[in-house]
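Hey, quick one: can you model this chain's 3D structure?
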Amino acid sequence: MGFEKRGAANGSGTPKQGTPELGSIGSVAVPRAREASRAREEDRMPVSSVRSLPGATPAPTERQPPYSGNIDYFSAGKLHGWVVRTNARESRPMVGLFIGDRALIRQLASKPRSDVKEAGIGDGYCGFELPVDDAAYALAKRFGYQVSVRVLDDPQFEIGTYTLPKPLFGGLDRNSPMIDHCRMLLSDELTLMAKLLARVDRPVTWPKLGKHALLFDKGRLIPESDAAPDTDTRLPAYLDYVKHRLHKNRDFDTDGTPEDRDHFLHWYLTGYGTIRRGLRTPLPHDVIDYLNAPFVIGGQKHTLTRAMWWRIVDDGTKLKSLDLSDSAAFLDLLYWWAEKEAPRLSVEDCLVPARHADLLRMVPTARKDDAFPLSNFMVRLQEDRSSFQFLDPTEEEDRKLFTLCMVLCSASRPDLLRYVPAGSLRRIFARQGETPSIFETFYQAMTLQDDPVSISHDMFAALIRLRGYDLQSHQFLARTETGDRLHAAALPIAADAERVDVQLIGPFEKASGLGQATRLSAEIMSRTGLRVNCVDFGLDNPAPEGFSKVGKMSDWKKARINLLHLNAESIPLAFAYGPDVFSDSYNIGYFYWELDTPALCHYLGMELLDEIWVSTEFGVSIYRPETAQPVVNVGMCFEELSAVDKDAARRNLVQQLQLPDDAFLSLVAFDSFSFVQRKNPLGVLAAFQKAFRGIDTAHLIIKTQNRDHVSDPMQERIWKRADAMIAADPRIHVINETLTYEALVDLKAASDCYISLHKSEGWGFGMIEAMNLKVPVVCTGYSGNMDFCSEQTAWLVDYKDSYLVEGDYIFVRAGQKWADPDIDDAAAQLIALYRNPRERAAKVEAAFANVRQNFSADAIARRYEARLQEILKTL
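Sure thing. Here's the predicted structure for all 875 residues.
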C-alpha cells in the first residue's frame, strides 16, 4: 500500500483545551526524551533562563501539567509514544487513540522505554504502541487522517495529535487499505459469490409448478369447515392449512368474521413469516395486492402500504415520529421498510411495491450529475452502516467502491440491486475490448487472485438468477406467472442429473420414529434394484440430530416417483419450500398418524399427492375413507442389528443404575415430543405398582428424551403427577436423554420386559424392536402395533374407547377417539409374564419368528417393489 513517507505529530503533553500547539516532532524518540528531561531540569530555573526546546514541554509559568509525554512516530501500523505522570516515579496511565471524540483503542502505557528512563523520566515503563487497523485508518480519513492520544484517566489531557501518512488510494489496487477493509467486511459475501460462480455454468431446469396451484386454491378442501361462501374473502388453501396446523383457528374466525382475516394476515406476515426464517411463505397475488395497496391518510402528502402501516402501528416509536408530509422523512421510512423490516419478515421480494422501489432507486437532484451517483437508498445505507462510514460520498472513487460493494452484497441480498442506479450497473460491467470491467477488477482485487476473473453482465445476471432474482426485469423469481408468491418458484434443479426411479424425501437426520422410518425405507429401497436418490428434509421437525447413522444424501433430482416420508401435515411444506421435483412425477406420501381420522391440516397434503402409503391396516382405516387417492399398506421393518451382547448390556445397566443383580427390569421408552398423554407413562406407573406391590426386585425404567423442552401445560401437569409417583418409589428410574441408536438397543436388550400402554400408535418401533431382541412385550391391543402383535406374540391389554378433548393430542378434531388401557388388566398381564417363564419363552420365540419372517427389510422390500413396479408400468 502506498503512503507518503512520513506523518506529522503535534504537541507534547498538552491539555486538550486552552493550550497552544507546539512545533513539529521528528521520528527519533531518544532525543525527545532527553530534551524533555532537560526541560524538566530547567523548570527549576528562573523563568527568564528557560529555553524552549523543539518537541519538549515548555516550562510552566504557573504550574506543571499533570502528565508529560510524546507521540514519537508511526510505523508498521502502530503509533508509538510515551507518557508519565509528572513527579511520579512509577505510573502506568491508560491512554486512548481518538479519532474525533471517539476512542477506538485503549492501552496501558507500560511498555519498556529505556531511552525515557535514561533521560531521567520515570522508571522507564511508560511506552505505548497503539495499533491503527484498517477500520481506524478508514475512519481517520474523515478527519484529514488526524488522530490524537489522550490520557483516559484525565480525558481532557491530550498527549498530542498526529497526522497519519495519507494512503495513496490507487483505485482498485488489491493492496489499498480501503479494498483490504472491504475484503474483511464482505468475507461472507465473497465466499457465497465464489460458490455461485462455481455453479453458474451448470445447466439447470426451472420449475413448471404444475401441481402447486392447489396451494392457492380457494375451494373447500377441509371438511367440517365453515368456509366463507365468498371466494374473494376465503383464505387460500395453504394459508388455511397453516391456520389449522398452528392452531390459529382458535384465535381467528377468518370465515365468519371479515376483520379476523386481516388479523390473521397480520399474524401470517409478522409471526409465521419470522418462523420460516428466510423462506418465502406462499402468498396469493390478491393478498399481495391487498397488502401493497396505498393506505391514504387524509391531509398527508405521502401514502404507505397496508403492510407498512401494520408494522408501524406495532412499532410505537415509528408511529410517534411519523410525518408523511415531509418527503425526506417519507424516504427514511421507505428505507427502513426496504432495508430492515421487509427483509426481517422475508417479504422484500413482494411487499416493497415498484412505486416505492423507484423512489428509493432515484438519485437526489443535487447529485444527478455525479459519476457513480448514490441513490436515495444508497445514501441512507451508507450513513446507516457504520462499517461503510469510512467512505466519503463526495468522492467519486468512494462512491464507485460503495456501488461495487453493494453489488457484491447482492449475492446474499439480491433485493439490493433494485436500488442501484441502472447507469451505474451498466458502467461497472462494461468492458473496453479485452480490458476487464470495473467489477471484474474489483472482484480480482477482493479475492487476491493473480488472474482476472471473467464475470460479464450476462454471467452476473445468470449468477444472481440462482439467488432468485431476474436482473433484466428487476423481478423476483418467487413470483409465479399468475403473480402468486412461492419459494419453490425460485429454486432450479440441475438439468444434467440423471433422472432416478424413486426419490426418497424425509427427515433422515432426525433422532425420532419418523427419522428412523425414513432411514429404514432407504435400506428397504436399496434391496429393490431400483435407482434411488435420498434427500434430507426435516423442516419443522423438532427432534435432535447427530445421533443416528445416516447414509449418503444428495441434492433434489428429477424422479419418476417421489416417496415423501413425511406425515400429512408436512407434505405442503415440501411443495412450498422444496424444489419442484413434483410436477412431472408420481408423488407418494408415507404417513404415520395415531388418531382414527385425519387431522384438518392433513387434507391439503392428501390432495397434493397421487397416492398414500401407510405401514399398518390401522393407517388404511384412517385415510381410505377420506380420499380418492389409493391408500396402500406396504408395511415397515425393524432395524437389522449386529450381534448384541445381552449379558454385557445387562451388567452395564445394573452398574449404571446400581440395581440388584436379580432385578426384574421393565422398560417403557418414548420421546416426550410425542405427547405423554398418548404414550401414557401414568398408566405404566400405575400398572407396575399394582402388579409388583411388595416385590422389591421389580424395577421400572422410564426412558424418555426432550422432556425439558416440553412446555405444554397439560403435559407438564402429567409429568408433575408422574414425578410424585416416581419420587415415592425407589424402584423407578428415569433416563431423560437422547441416546445413540446402539445405546438404546442395549437398554432394551438389558430389560426383562418392554411395556407400551399407549393410547394409540401409528406403528410401534419400540415394540417390534423388543420382539427382535427376544424381549417380552406387554402392550395395548389397539392401533398400528396390531399388525405384528397378537395373543401369540404379546401380552395384550384390554381397553375402552375414549373420546379426545382439545389438548389431549396435537391436531384434535371433534369425534376422534383412542384407547384407554385397562390398568387392572395391564397389571394382570405384567404379573402373568413375570410368574410364567414357560409362557414367556413361548411368546418371545413366536414374536421373534413373526417379525423375522414378515417384517425384515427383505420382506418389506418385496412389498415396496411390487407396488412401485405397478406404478412405474403406468408412467
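One thing worth noting: The chain is about 35% helix and 15% strand.
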